[in-house]
Structure to design on (666 residues):
């Protein structure tokens, strides 16, 4: 028992992704919902790096790098939207932001 | 000796030296600030207040450890530990000297040499915001929250020019391992000017050194950027609600971060443990000369005492310094200790600058602080990076 | 040793992720997410991704999550108010999720060909030099495009963050 098979890393990635989806569905605080998305991105990154190990190529690391850049851009814009939302609607609950539902 | 035993021994030595340095840095700071302000500074506990750090530790340990109601207990207790752990972790990769041989064991004076050592340090310093931010939030107090908010905004903002300044120095060194960065700065131009990155052809990194130093002030929340703990508006900022050892933990973290910052500046820009001028010109005699001079000054003041007790204490200090000078004249000892002396001297000089600035400059206003980094420091660092990149690409062989 | 490290940090990652789902207070969620990111960085190291592990801590834990914590502190976000959910969801949610995760693991385990064991040091292409070489040769265009993306994001954040929208 010295090393673990590669598939376990993929299983871990799948579990984290599912937990991210669960958080996205269950939570109603918009910041927590946003963090669940980040969790999903992280889970995907783990499988990129794992496949990179499998094929002995660094391309997976490059993809992970790009995902991180996109996540940073997304966090900046998303948090700005949340700030604007709180300023206009005075709430962080996603259920209460329902003007477009009619 | 196998790797693990060696690492444990080195870690224990490093921890002991570091803790003593942290305690006495505080003493040095209080003394220097006092003399800048024409005061005496600590002078009651021991000769010249030399036992003051010990007294402080005992005082802080025996104070009541107060946890206010309405705080978030878990985060309130976690925050100081986070701050001090992260601050001390950075020393794992800092190289203090070249490979030396003690009792038949050859080992570098460094805990571990990572090939991503610099990235490791950057990672640690970017995570260490949490100690301060969480302390501010968990205390559930206006002043703490404002301090925590200010500090997290300030640390993110100054991280940027700092990383860019480091990147331009890296363009000259071509490696991320701190030990190799020091090794590339060995040698002299024309036999006298050291090949430190700050003087290095094709593009001397003086600008990025200055930018890095300014950012180090902001990262450690020191004056003139100590907005997070500005005492005349925020009581004590993020550690208003802390007492006893938890309060001391924040202090230790601040001083440890200061030492890391100065050590990093020494490694990246000031050539680590390489002496200022070559050995043919007598660089190997410098440690002995410095200690001899220090002893002479102490002896002079002992002979012309300002206070009666100086007649007894200062000659003893002088004799200790002269013994150190003699020690540095022995070739075997010199070979092992001279690099450490140079490293400590450069780092100590930068630390003195930190204290000097604290005694000299007033505090910035918050909008000035933000405008300074985004509109001045960051563009300067960026322009310096682009110029360095261009010059290095045009003249790749000059070094 | 590799297996022990994997298990320790995999368990930490899953526990923190579960905590993110369970906790009602956003700052507890943010801290759990930082925990997940830290343990993922260690797993990247085990998989030979030195550069990506460092960037994970610097960018994700050190910049993005600080932004989250900053916004949570700025808005003084409190815990979610509990609402009556459907009884089915309350009693069946967790068991169904666990069954789903078990099935998922089984499928992945059986679909993959007998994969090799991960050994620390089995792949050293993740060093900064290698990643940089790829980034500035084969992936140069995407790399430059991301800079435009970041510029757009900065502009968007500035516009959205103004006082009057």
């Amino acid at each position: 028992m010295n090393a673990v098979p590669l598939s376990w890393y993929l299983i871990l990635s799948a579990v984290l992704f599912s937990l991210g989806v669960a958080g996205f569905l269950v939570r109603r605080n918009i910041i927590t919902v946003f963090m669940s998305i980040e969790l999903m991105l992280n889970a995907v990154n783990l499988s990129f790096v794992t496949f990179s190990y499998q094929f002995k190529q660094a391309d997976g690391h490059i993809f992970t790098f790009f995902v991180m850049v996109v996540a940073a851009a997304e966090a900046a814009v998303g948090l700005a939207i949340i700030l604007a939302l709180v300023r206009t609607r005075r709430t962080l609950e996603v259920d209460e932001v329902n003007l477009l539902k009619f | 000796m196998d790797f693990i035993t060696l690492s444990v021994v080195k870690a224990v030595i490093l921890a002991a030296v570091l803790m003593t340095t942290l305690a006495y840095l505080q003493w040095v700071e209080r003394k220097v600030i006092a003399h800048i302000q024409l005061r005496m500074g600590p002078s009651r506990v021991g000769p010249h207040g030399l036992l003051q750090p010990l007294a402080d530790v005992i005082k802080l340990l025996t104070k009541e450890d107060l946890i206010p109601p309405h705080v978030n207990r878990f985060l309130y207790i976690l925050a100081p530990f986070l701050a001090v752990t992260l601050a001390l972790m950075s020393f794992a990769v800092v190289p203090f000297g070249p490979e030396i041989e003690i009792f038949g064991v050859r080992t570098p004076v460094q805990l571990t040499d990572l090939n991503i050592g610099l990235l490791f340090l950057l990672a640690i310093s970017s995570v260490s915001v949490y100690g301060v931010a969480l302390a501010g939030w968990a205390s559930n107090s206006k002043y703490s929250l404002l301090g925590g908010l200010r500090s997290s905004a300030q640390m993110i903002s100054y991280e940027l020019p700092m990383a860019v300044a480091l990147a331009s120095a890296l363009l000259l060194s071509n490696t991320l391992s701190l030990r190799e960065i020091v090794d590339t700065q060995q040698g002299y131009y024309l036999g006298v000017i050291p090949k430190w990155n700050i003087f290095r052809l094709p593009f001397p990194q003086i600008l990025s050194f200055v930018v890095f130093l300014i950012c180090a002030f902001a990262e450690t929340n020191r004056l003139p950027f100590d907005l997070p703990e500005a005492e005349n508006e925020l009581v004590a900022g993020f550690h208003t609600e802390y007492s006893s050892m938890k309060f001391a933990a924040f202090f230790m973290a601040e001083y440890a971060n200061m030492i890391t910052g100065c050590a990093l500046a020494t490694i990246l820009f000031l050539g680590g443990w390489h002496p200022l001028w070559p050995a043919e010109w007598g660089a190997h005699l410098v440690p002995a000369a410095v200690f001899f001079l220090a002893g002479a000054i102490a002896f002079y003041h002992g002979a012309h005492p300002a206070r009666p007790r100086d007649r007894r204490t200062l000659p003893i200090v002088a004799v200790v310094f002269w013994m150190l000078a003699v020690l540095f004249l022995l070739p075997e000892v010199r070979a092992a200790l001279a690099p450490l002396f140079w490293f400590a001297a450069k780092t100590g000089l930068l630390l003195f600058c930190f204290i000097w600035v604290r005694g000299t400059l007033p505090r910035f206003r918050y909008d000035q602080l933000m405008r300074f980094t985004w509109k001045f420091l960051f563009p300067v660092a960026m322009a310096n990076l682009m110029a360095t990149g261009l010059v290095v690409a045009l003249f790749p062989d000059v070094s | 040793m590799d297996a022990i490290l994997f298990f320790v940090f995999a368990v930490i990652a899953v526990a923190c992720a579960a905590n993110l789902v369970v906790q009602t207070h956003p700052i507890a969620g943010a801290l759990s997410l930082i925990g997940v990111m830290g343990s993922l960085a260690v797993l990247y190291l085990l998989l030979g991704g030195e550069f990506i592990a460092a960037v994970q801590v610097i960018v994700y834990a050190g910049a993005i999550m600080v932004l989250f914590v900053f916004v949570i502190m700025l808005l003084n976000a409190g815990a979610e108010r509990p609402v009556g959910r459907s009884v089915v969801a309350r009693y069946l949610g967790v068991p169904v999720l666990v069954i789903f995760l078990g099935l998922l693991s089984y499928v992945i385990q059986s679909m993959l060909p007998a994969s090799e064991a991960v050994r620390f040091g089995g792949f050293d292409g993740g060093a900064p030099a290698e990643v940089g070489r790829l980034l500035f040769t084969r992936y140069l265009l995407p790399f430059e495009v991301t800079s435009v993306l970041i510029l757009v994001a900065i502009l968007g954040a500035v516009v959205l963050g103004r006082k009057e929208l």
